[in-house]
Amino acid sequence: MRLGHLQPLYERPDLPGPWASVYFATSHPDESAAQERERAAREAGRRLEGQGADRATCRAVYERLTSAPPGAGPAAGRAVFATAGEVVVDTPLPTPPPMGEAPCWSALPHVGPLLELTGEDPSCLVAYIDRTGADVELRNGHGLRDGHGGDRVGSVHGRQWPVHRTAGADWSERHFQLKTENTWEHNAALIADELRACQEETRADLVVLAGDPRERRAVRDQLPKELRSAAVETARGGRAPGSASPGTHAARLLDQEVDDARARHAQERGEAAMERFRAGRMPSDGRVEAAEGVPALVDAAREHRIGSLLIRPDGPDLYREVWVGTEPDQLALRRTDVQYLGDARPSPARADDALIRSVAVAGAEVLTVSSADGERYGADIPVGGLGALLRWPYEGGAD
């Protein structure tokens, strides 16, 4: 999971914390929903104030939790993060948070549960293609909305003529057909270049090509190698008006294929990461490509060496106390070490929240290791529930 949607929690130096983190269920269909919601919001504020939260932040959380009408939209819950009297991030949840997830007032936003509740949710570019161009939209489930569909992020208007071949066989007709095919190839190259640019800007995980069969194959052939491997084709939908209008059967079929492609991508990426972790945790020629355990991960995070952070939600090391400063790379096992790194007033924090902040700012990703993964690869992977694939190997052995 890419953590771009969490960047507002870490990119503002004027909001150093502490932070209120509240996971709130919103799916109450009965008539008493509003009253129950207001009661739960009051209880969340009371608990935060009991932990030392300021009244302005408690009031901001209360107002946000009670402002949205019950049952609005597809979200079953919300994750709200606030500080200094301001709600900074309000994320919809596809599943209700567990009852035992109490409101938290802490040095860092408590985002660990958010990763498990939202799950792996690859972002996806959907390109609606015909022989004259394409429209490109981004689908990202971290902004749940009523129904499917995404945000338009690009479009291509290529050559408009000639785009249709004729049935003739004389020299002039063959010449015209060659010009038509050249138009198709030219437009396919433009579309492929637009998709490359959109992917670089959005960092989408995969691409779905919908529309004209010949043109989408031509587009795929002209994509850069890495993007081509992340592209899938579908016969559903298209660029013509009415071919996949919202709410139609065709649109629902396309939505299902996009969702299936994203689910397959998430599963394959998780399996590949676990295989790499298993191989990388053992020294090869004296070099280690994976790390596990809080001490090794803290060192790797300070040096921005973490490429993928692996978290097993039931691991005991998630709760281990570390010390953090105001900067993402100011984290250590001991308070005095953070002071040495430049922060005179470090604070205690959970290991998972400190490591997530570090990798989010460094542009890395987080992968949640499920119980099934633990059964498949062994309950000790990763040790204590925290591990990482490194951006470059280091000399040494496994801890």
Task: State the main characteristics.
399 residues, alpha+beta, Translation, Eukaryotic Peptide Chain Release Factor Subunit 1, Chain A, Nucleotidyltransferase, domain 5, 60s Ribosomal Protein L30, Chain: A, 3 domains, four-stranded antiparallel beta sheet, globular, Peptide chain release factor 1, Bact_RF_family2
Please provide a written account of the structure.
The chain has 399 residues and is an alpha+beta fold. The protein has eleven helices and 16 strands. The protein is globular. Strands 7-6-5-8-9 form a five-stranded mixed beta sheet, with helices on both faces. A four-stranded antiparallel beta sheet has the order 3-2-1-4, with helices on both faces. The protein folds into three domains: 1-118, 2-Layer Sandwich (Translation, Eukaryotic Peptide Chain Release Factor Subunit 1, Chain A); 122-161 and 172-266, Nucleotidyltransferase, domain 5 (2-Layer Sandwich); 281-398, 60s Ribosomal Protein L30, Chain: A, CATH 3.30.1330.30. Residues 30-53 are annotated as: Disordered. This is Peptide chain release factor 1.
